[in-house]
Write a structure and sequence with these properties.
Structural class: alpha/beta
Strand order of the largest sheet: 5-4-1-6-7
Largest sheet: 5 strands, parallel
Distance between the termini: 49 Å
Strand content: 5-15%
Radius of gyration: 30 Å
Shape: elongated
Number of helices: 31
Length: about 675
């Protein structure tokens, strides 16, 4: 074995993801010439260095980096030609799967033949060494080696067709060319013969393509230029031809070599790959579908979503889609009667669940840390002190008077007792005052319990109506400590006299003194991370203030937060709401719109394919970790988002400024 082969084998073994990406680069750019080899090896060296340093450092937000040439300008450039030639896959057509070979694994998944993808790839690899080949050659080999019949070929084509969709950017160019009376043709290096390609193109809205040239029909290809030579010298010798395609070597270099003008339309996969969390060796089909849906929408060239809608689509969408699937899985395991989606963080999750994953009785309910702390005060006064009073001090965004704090926390009954601890209502709420107020809370616990009685009574009425006859309920909340559930478990059972068994299904959980017992009883179920699974990811997230706030922005509902409960004029228990930060309502709605668009796209893809993919919590959450690690990226996204719950100088501090301070 030569030195080159030894080095290549060692690099492939140690860096399989890098080598897989490098192989794709070679296919796209070529390395046949001496200078081609120099460029290829230089590119490989750069890839290895980036991998060793922790990957690509993203300096530009994806929202800024998804622009292409204005489609009107492109159409003007091609209108001077007689023949407009388009590549098919990744140009005229986009597929809802990240890489072409992932189709084979998908076929195996659907037909329940686990090693089909591997066998399919091996046959194609052996055939490629002898030149052009068709799908029939591939299946002849599969039948000979594995006994796989043409019936599976038909299934593969149906799956391929269902994955395909029109590229809206290229479709606009195509439409202008057709209206101008230009002759439009398609040229593809592909194993599907012309009649198959034609069927796919028609299903995607391309019904005016006059000729289709496929490598397997002509025993010629784009990558060696022979099919372009045919077009230029025989088919359209007296015509001006321009070709548009994604592969730099096959669609640009080889076209120009044969006297055909060319324009590269870089594939959406190439445009978006540095932003996607991809591991070629470990990637699941679900992740492949997720990445493809994002790339197809964001990088096609005419995405109309603004940066907040894109943020929801790219990062919130996969998280919510996977979470809804996880909710149903755990609800089935625990035999849940009713799902309670807790406001405000579960708003868009509830909308997504109702529209696309509705399997169990569910309701959007109102609970908050402050409100439930009042309901459980009699048993957990220390929880009220830690989660309401002390956090009020830690997270304060401006100086508050003691009177303001007591009113905000529902402790107005202590105003007349302040003189006992040498405080007055006009004094500033600071550390020494807080310690004295804690002493006063314990001294007058009975008085506070009595003051909270109307809230408890109204809350009882509200929650009894919500739970009804359900015996096993699950709260749906993003996390992180599930302390709300601890308070609600006490309140519902011991105050409301309800016997329902309570669970919480949430994105992530960190073990604390408040939730330890419930974790041990398997009452808290986590999708992305917990102390028992993916703990390192949880640590990366929970101990990074920017990441926590980004998730809170992602799930912030465009309606006020609950502060307590009251009786209405009919004597029924209803929520009592605080004011909302009006500056962010439109932004929150756009984020939710993006999330819902993504969830809809995943749902429709699965519906078309008649199969469902599980989206691993750690994989979809990793993309949020990656994004938030890029200061420039995160700062751009949230530079005009107002966030009042961060310890900054102003009440309505911009999130972008907070990111600059904390990254």
């Amino acid at each position: 074995m030569g030195m080159y082969s030894v080095i290549k084998n060692r690099v492939t073994t140690k860096y399989p993801d890098v080598m897989a990406e490098y192989s794709e680069w070679i296919i796209a750019h070529g390395n046949a010439t001496f200078m081609g080899k120099v460029r290829a090896y230089s590119h490989l060296l750069c890839m290895l260095l980036k991998h060793k340093s922790g990957g690509v450092k993203i300096q530009k937000s994806e929202y800024e980096d998804c622009k292409r040439e204005d489609v009107a300008m492109l159409t003007e450039r091609v209108k001077e030609y007689d023949i407009i030639s388009f590549d098919v896959f990744d140009t005229l057509i986009l597929r809802n799967i990240e890489r072409p070979e992932d189709v084979f694994d998908l076929v195996g998944y659907i037909i329940n033949m686990e090693d089909f993808g591997t066998a399919r790839k091996d046959i194609e690899k052996s055939l490629s060494q002898s030149g052009n080949y068709s799908i029939f050659d591939i299946y002849a080999g599969l039948e000979l080696q594995r006994g796989i019949t043409k019936e599976i070929l038909d299934k593969e084509f149906k799956i391929e067709k269902k994955l395909c969709q029109m590229n809206p950017y290229i479709k606009e160019v195509y439409d202008v060319c057709v209206e101008a009376g230009k002759k439009v043709i398609a040229v593809s290096d592909m194993y599907w013969p012309k009649e198959y390609i034609e069927e796919i193109l028609r299903s995607c809205g391309y019904s005016e393509i006059k000729d289709i040239y496929v490598s397997c029909d002509y025993a010629m290809s784009k990558k060696d230029g022979t099919i372009f030579k045919l077009l230029k010298e025989k088919e359209y010798s007296n015509k001006k031809i321009i070709h548009i395609g994604d592969n730099y070597n096959a669609d640009v270099v080889q076209a120009k070599k044969n006297g055909i003008a060319s324009i590269q339309y870089m594939s959406v996969y190439e445009q978006g790959r540095k932003y996607r969390h991809t591991s070629y060796e470990k990637q699941t089909l679900g992740q492949s579908v997720v990445n493809a849906i994002i790339n197809n929408e964001i990088h096609n060239g005419i995405c109309k979503m603004d940066k907040y809608e894109q943020f929801g689509f790219i990062y919130g969408g996969p998280l919510v889609a996977g979470y809804c699937k996880f909710i149903n899985k755990k609800a089935e395991e625990k035999k849940i009667d009713k799902l309670l989606f807790v406001a405000r963080d579960a708003d868009v999750i509830y909308q997504s669940y109702q529209k696309f994953y509705d399997k169990y009785d569910c309701e959007y309910v109102y609970a908050s840390r402050n409100a439930v702390a009042q309901l459980a005060f009699e048993k957990y006064p220390d929880y009220f002190i830690e989660k309401v009073l002390q956090l009020r001090f830690i997270e304060k965004t401006k100086e508050y008077s003691i009177e303001e704090v007591l009113k905000q926390t529902g402790l107005q009954c202590l105003l007349e007792k302040l003189k006992e601890i040498n405080l007055s209502k006009d004094m500033v709420f600071e550390q020494n005052a807080m310690q004295k107020m804690i002493e006063l809370i314990y001294r007058y616990k009975a008085l506070i319990v009595e003051a909270f009685a109307p809230v408890r009574e109204a809350a009882c009425l509200y929650w009894k109506q919500v739970i009804g006859d359900a015996k096993r309920i699950a709260f749906i909340d993003i996390g992180w400590q599930a302390s709300t559930m601890m308070c609600m478990d006490y309140f519902l059972k011991e105050v409301c006299n309800l016997s329902a068994d309570l669970y919480t299904i949430q994105l992530g959980t960190m073990r604390t003194k408040w939730n330890n017992a419930m974790i041990e009883k398997d009452k808290i179920l986590s999708y992305c991370f917990s102390d028992d699974c993916n703990k390192r990811m949880g640590d990366l997230f929970m101990y990074h203030p920017v990441r926590v706030h980004i998730i809170e922005i992602m799930f912030a509902a465009p309606h006020p937060t609950l502060i307590s409960y009251k009786k209405d004029e009919k004597g029924q228990g209803v929520p009592l709401f605080a004011d909302v930060i009006s500056e962010n309502i439109s932004k929150n709605k756009k984020i939710q719109s993006g999330i819902l668009k993504f969830v809809s796209a995943v749902y429709q893809t699965e519906k078309n394919l008649e199969c469902e993919f599980m989206l691993q919590g750690d994989k979809v959450f990793q993309s949020v970790i990656d994004m938030s690690a890029q200061k420039r990226y995160a700062e751009f996204l949230f530079d005009d988002y107002y966030f009042s719950n961060v310890p900054c100088d102003a009440q309505a501090e911009k999130m972008g400024k907070f990111i600059r301070k904390n990254m």
